[in-house]
Design goal:
Helix content is 64%, strand content 5%. The protein is mostly helical. It folds into 4 domains: 143 residues, no CATH class; 110 residues, Tetratricopeptide repeat domain (Serine Threonine Protein Phosphatase 5, Tetratricopeptide repeat), CATH 1.25.40; 44 residues, no CATH class; 60 residues. The protein has a 3-stranded antiparallel sheet. A hairpin with a 4-residue loop joins strand 5 and strand 6. Helix 5 packs antiparallel against helix 6, helix 11 runs antiparallel to helix 13 and helix 15 packs parallel to helix 18. The longest helix is centred in the last third of the chain and has 31 residues. The relative contact order is 0.05. It comes from Pavo cristatus (Indian peafowl). One of its GO terms (cellular component) is cytoplasm. Keywords: Cytoplasm, Nucleus, Signal, Signalosome.
Length: 510
């Protein structure tokens, strides 16, 4: 595990005695290194400390099994942002994550981010050098700032910008819409490669006026959505997802869709899911992710198929009832393929559905640290975990008239006192209709007069039917007597009834 850290912490593997001594000191800060045999690869489990997000624990055992493989699941700016997030929130992975980000950013024109990452890497290296037990025998030296690359890249970016701008002016002079649209897209791509997101968004948006087909509109929407996600402008994301879905190429297709349309829809649903997740609308987010097609999920600029499995699975677990969970997740042939990429999430969902709550919650705790290193999921982990636990408590008690809180505490791996606090909160919020016998530690369901409740529902339903019937009769009378209401003119004068004698005719006929 964590092969990207092996070169850092396992240099001089032949000096096994020195490594053994290092294990003892590193275990104090949550870093454990073990090996099967003296000559075998050394798996590493890294404990990460958090100082930024309040939801992250101060000390935890966390491992990204292969940081390099994780980063390869993304492309463009998303890879850089995710590596920077890991570096900011996991000190033990900071140096390796920043090195990868620095290496990748040099393939772009993003000079400002290169300088920022290099500064962070230098600081992280100095901090690591001040921790003798964590420094390998050869020491760690940050790569020098490549000033030659910085200057050369700035000049190349400026020259390319001037060329693209000149080309766009020529296209506008020729008044060829297709060329102008491509010119705006090329300019937007260049700004995005330079890290100038606001100008990239402007260029992609300007291409809209020169779209001549539904395919062009969809491409424009996807470009705007991508940049809006980077800017975390979630309302913009949802707006352009809606625009793309309303194009004839997608809206008019029914039944079986071709591969290209499925790929576009999957991208739109994934982007909408991210926006709903950011807005804390977890049920809507789950529905969006569940509509993604596994065979057409190729959107590395935003997220990976594994992200779809984790985001969709946890949001569904937190908000779906048993029927919805069984119908939309467990029995979903499409989403099952996503869950195969994340067997731990799959097992958690099945354990929850089988009412094995202790195992389910234990497995959730085991994967919590990895989730806290996901830049889009980290702010929601605590809320999602709370909702999943509350739903488990509600489902556990729902079939019973009374429940022994000692047995409940055992089932949920908690103490009776802590369980009582949780149940009290659920009762106050109206999620469990019960009362607690604090002396005997028994939870009793409140008696509900089902007969009276049924009568009340019937009366309310009857009143609703009566209201609808009156509305239908009124509408039929208006149509029969040809009553029309003119819309008021722009001067603001009031509408009038036509014909003039319509009121008298209506009263006569009725």
């Amino acid at each position: 595990m964590c092969s990207t850290l092996q070169s850092t912490y396992t240099r001089g593997r032949e000096k096994w005695n020195n490594v053994t001594c290092l294990l003892l000191s590193l275990s104090l800060i949550g870093l454990h290194v073990g090996a099967k045999t003296a000559g075998s690869p050394v798996p590493v489990v890294v404990g990460c400390l958090n100082s930024v997000l309040p939801s992250l624990p101060s000390k935890s055992e966390l491992c990204l099994q292969d940081l390099e493989q994780y980063a390869s699941s993304y492309s463009g700016l998303m890879r850089i942002e995710r590596l920077q997030f890991i570096a900011d929130h996991c000190p033990q992975l900071r140096v390796e994550a920043l090195k990868m980000a620095l290496s990748f950013v040099q393939r772009t024109f993003n000079v400002d981010v290169y300088e920022e990452i290099h500064r962070k890497l230098s600081e992280a290296t100095r901090e690591l050098q001040n921790t003798p037990d964590a420094v390998p025998d050869g020491g760690i030296e940050p790569p020098p700032l490549d000033t030659a690359w910085v200057e050369a890249t700035r000049k190349k970016a400026l020259l390319k910008l001037e060329k693209l701008d000149t080309d766009l002016k020529n296209y506008k002079g020729n008044s060829i819409k297709e060329s102008i649209r491509r010119g705006h897209d090329d300019l937007g791509d260049h700004y995005l490669d330079c890290g100038d997101l606001s100008n990239a968004l402007k260029c992609y948006s300007r291409a809209r006026d020169y779209c001549t087909s539904a395919k062009h509109v969809i491409n424009m929407c996807l470009n705007v959505i991508k940049v809006s996600v980077y800017l975390q402008n979630w309302s913009h994301v949802l707006s352009y997802v809606s625009k793309a879905e309303s194009t004839p190429e997608i809206a008019e297709q029914r039944g079986e869709r071709d591969s290209q349309t499925q790929a576009i829809l999957t991208k739109l649903k994934c982007a909408a899911g991210l926006a709903e997740l950011a807005a804390r609308k977890y049920k809507q987010a789950a529905k969006c992710f569940l509509l993604a097609s596994f065979d057409h999920c190729d959107f590395p600029e935003l997220l990976s198929p594994s992200n779809v499995a984790v985001y969709g699975g946890l949001c569904a677990l937190a908000t779906f009832d048993r029927q919805e969970l069984q119908r939309n997740v467990i029995s979903s042939s499409s989403f099952k393929l996503f869950l195969e990429l994340e067997p731990q999430v799959r097992d958690i969902i099945f354990k929850f559905y089988e009412s094995k709550y202790a195992s389910c919650l234990k497995m959730l705790d085991e994967m919590k640290d990895n989730l806290l290193l996901d830049m889009y999921l980290a702010p929601h982990v605590r809320t999602l975990y709370t909702q999943i636990r509350n739903r488990a408590l509600i489902q556990y008690f729902s079939p019973y008239v009374s429940a022994d809180m000692h047995k409940m505490a055992t089932a949920f791996n908690t103490t009776v006192a802590a369980l009582e606090d949780e149940l009290t909160q659920l009762i106050l919020e109206g999620l469990i209709n019960a009362r607690i016998d604090s002396h005997s530690k028994i939870l009793y369901a409140r008696d509900v007069d089902q007969r009276s409740t049924t009568f009340e529902k019937s009366l309310l339903m009857g009143k609703e039917f009566q209201r609808r019937a009156k509305a239908m009769i009124l509408r039929a009378a208006v149509l029969r007597n040809q009553i029309h209401v003119k819309s008021p003119p722009r001067e603001g004068s009031q509408g009038e009834l036509t014909p003039a004698n319509s009121q008298s005719r209506m009263s006569t006929n009725m």
